[in-house]
Amino acid sequence: MQIAKCKLRRFLQFAFCSLQFAICFFGCTSARADGGSVRLSEKKDGYRITVFSAPSPFRAGPVDISVLVQDAVTGAPLPQARVIVRMTKIGQPALEYPATQEGATNKLLHAAQLELPAPGRWQLEVRVEGLHGSAVLAGEVEAFERLPRWHSLWLWITWPALAIALFCIHELLARRKFGITGRTHVR
Asked: Helix, strand, coil % (nearest 5) of the chain?
């Protein structure tokens, strides 16, 4: 009886640790981050332009590009600026999207959500038009392979197995508590 309890305890510890690992390892897949990793930051023509991207690492698939536009002298955000995000890659059609405050959770940022069709080196260009005229900030970003489809669906695939495992553990504990073995006695 003591050995069975010890085995059950080890199984539960293993199951709990596996669940924690799975949540930590697979849990972060969303691309809508309003911020993320800084890709470019530079002073250009009276502006301080900072470009963030998510997910991190940057990869093909759904991508969020957020832009913070500030006055280069005072550092004050310039929410009235108009921002256009353009991404180009040889052999792919150019992607051009307006980055708006409506698309951003953090209203200091201008955000554009886009679908990056392929991995590889992409040219990222951000055009800003505002109080100080227009400015263009450009740079190169490396996009990794798209995550496999199961990566975003793993929770929906595995939760039934967790429910079944919890039911089995409950049944096992209930049988031990009440002394039910599941065997029928023949006289």
From this structure: 30, 40, 30
Three-class DSSP labels, 38-82: EEEEEEECCEEEEEEEECCCCECEEEEEEEEEEECCCCCECCCCE
Task: Give, to the nearest 10 degrees, the angle between helix 149-178 and helix 2-26.
Answer: 160
Spell out the residues 6+ positions from residue 182 whose beta carbon is closer than 8 angstroms to its own.
175
In this predicted structure, the answer to whether residue 31 has a pLDDT above a threshold of 50 is: no
CATH number attached to the domain at 37-143 = 2.60.40.10
pTM of the model: 0.64
143 to 43, 116, 131: CA distances (angstroms) = 25, 9, 33
Q: Pick from 16, 27, 25, 23: which is nearest to 165 by CA?
A: 16
Helices (H) and strands (E) in the chain, counts: 2, 8
Pick from 136, 131, 149, 57: which is nearest to 96 by CA?
136
Q: In terms of pLDDT, which residue wins out, 134 or 12?
A: 134
38-60 pLDDT, tens digit per residue, is 999 999 999 999 999 998 888 99
What distance in Å separates the CA atoms of residue 97 and residue 4, rounded to the nearest whole number? 61
DSSP H/E element including 133: strand 133-143
